[in-house]
Amino acid sequence: MKRIFEIDPWKVVTHEFKPEEKRLQESMTSIGNEYMGMRGMFEETYSGDTHKGIYLGGVWYPDKTRVGWWKNGYPEYFGKVINAVDFTKVDIKLNGSSVDLAKDEFSDFELALDMKKGILNRSFIVEKDGQKFRLNFERFVSVAQKELYASKITVENLNDTEANVEIKSYIDADVFNEDANYDEKFWNVLAQNVAETHMSLTAQTIPNNFGTPQFTTEMLADHVTDLRPMAAETTEKSVVNIFAGQVAAGQTVAFEKRVIVVTSRDYDTQEALTQATQTLSQKQAEKSFEELKTEQAAGWAKRWEKADVEISGNAESQQGIRFNLFQLFSTYYGDDARLNIGPKGFTGEKYGGATYWDTEAFAVPLYLALADESVTKNLLKYRYDQLAGAYHNAQQQGLKGALYPMVTFNGIECHNEWEITFEEIHRNGTIAYAIYNYTRYTGDEEYATHNGFDVLVGIARFWADRVHYSKRKGQYMIHGVTGPNEYENNVNNNWYTNMLAKWCLNYANEIADKVSAEKLAQLDLGEAERQKWHEIADNMYLPEDQELGIFVQHDTFLDKDLTPVKDLPEGQLPLNQNWSWDKILRSPYIKQADVLQGIYYFVEDFTPEQKEKNFDFYEPLTVHESSLSPSIHSVLAADLHKEDKAFEMYSRTARLDLDNYNNDTEDGLHITSMTGSWLAIVQGFAGMRVIDGELEFAPFLPKEWDGYKFRINFRGRLLSIEVDKTGSKIELLKGEPLKIKLNGEETELTVK
């Protein structure tokens, strides 16, 4: 655990700059608007260690899969997000010397991410040859005009004499990825244009041999400044505008850089890209920087009005939930059905910027409650549109049906670690679960009985082929899998995987009863195949230990040395940074909820005794070294009235990155797991459930808080839920009257 930012309910702020923590600071101050985003790196020259990263939604590259031992069925490429052309770059010279905080003497440093308005601010006083200057930086990516990046730099001369200020502004395609094979670079420049106060550059991703699209981007920068335009230059990979002037003693000079960014995802030709940048640039030029900032603040205000969770009496908890919601909505707000939610969002390159099962498992419940139903429908449509790729993935393994990828940009599996890619097949069940979750929450069965049914049938056919029948036990089994606990690979009969396969087969049959005869015929789904699904589901082997009263994680789990985590010698955690992989695989330690993930999905289907015995057995063996783990344990602990444990796990998921719990936040934030803090409050502390179409709450107030309040959408209604030391209050703010249960008591809500 490492806390380098101050506690503030609406800001991520520090007054210290430590070069050794710069990458961590960069991750924590990332900004985005779904269309694009960037780490909190410095705009100006910095010669020390840094991870500069700018990423564009849906822009990626298929890097060749490199493995020592090729296995049949391996994906041909590993998809990765690529560092975009750098349009933020500037070089600030004061009396001829570049500002560089890796070398310069400076004071009064402040770095502050304003989460309320979506604006990143930085300021400091720098000393150059005995003279002092105050520099202030503001920047944001606009939620009002998605293609717009806007920044403003002010330089104040704190001296008694005049000073020379020069600013070079770049659009630079000479960028690299941290994880590139052999320092490969990914952009070829197609066109450059420079004038006195503006410049543009068009670049295309380098060719690939896998038939995936090349992406073209065009960036046009306009400058508004008190400085005089001095020169405009081009190099092989960049365009540059240079501005300079004299600043009198005690005076301030301002420099604005506004960049329009467009990509070939939205425009078919290079000519269309150019036309778009010019049109959009003219639009932003009609407004002052203050007007653009006002639009930005207003856009975020609308988001916070719907989604804010107010916590009284605990500023750490308040900052945590707001930070997570801010970064989630900076990554995805449902405006583009072609996009999804990468585990790192726009904050780093780890996990390749691709889509994982995290979205369906953890993000869908949040977006169902905090956004319009269309947002979740877009997430479901994303998977429907990639159904052909899922069939391809299964065929690569010689299997029938559809296998949704572990990692993807386009539906084709593009991850190259066999034990994860082709053994962690439980993600297929979560794709189906998201359809169920949407249907249960909204009451809308149309998707499940139409396009969603195509997905369910593909998944059911996969499970029906992937199981095998054990004559010895007279049951169906699934061998050679990896469960959610990735600290065990290639196990047999992972309870969670088998349970989800059984549920998927039953759910597909349940929906089949509701679809039209034409739909069944279209998918060639007959009674014999459906009966086979029933037979497999009815005879699925689910490992269980009657004496312990638990579901067994997999066939040989109980043969391990089941020493709890608390009894490990000091200094062993995190295991993934201290133990060999061999030692981890042989250990009983659980990276994230596995059996408990399945209980969380269907929490109302298990008895209190089943939930408690499994929680008490598995939680002490869990190291929570996946960012996805604490929230599930928090919700289940709350369900079991283990309020201290629920709050402990909430604090961990809410402040996972703010306090760098897993010692890896410098690589980027854990975006998809940020849903966990909201899940812990709403499904955990407030006990929200949808059972048989009815909304239920069973709230409690953590003793560390004075109260909490949030809003949710539910079936055309807007509700406010408030919990404090006097009790719980639920109000219907919009919509038709609604019957709910509060602490088991039926009540009807009407708008007052």
From TrEMBL:
InterPro entries membership: 6-hairpin_glycosidase_sf (IPR008928), 6hp_glycosidase-like_sf (IPR012341), Gal_mutarotase_sf_dom (IPR011013), GH65_N (IPR037018), Glyco_hydro_65_C (IPR005194), Glyco_hydro_65_M (IPR005195), Glyco_hydro_65_N (IPR005196), Malt_Pase/Glycosyl_Hdrlase (IPR017045)
Membership in a protein family: Belongs to the glycosyl hydrolase 65 family.
Domain Glycoside hydrolase family 65 central catalytic: start-end pairs: 322-678
UniProt name for this protein: Maltose phosphorylase
Organism name: Ligilactobacillus animalis
Record domain Glycoside hydrolase family 65 N-terminal: where: 14-265
Superkingdom of origin: Bacteria
Domain Glycoside hydrolase family 65 C-terminal per the UniProt entry, residue ranges: 688-749
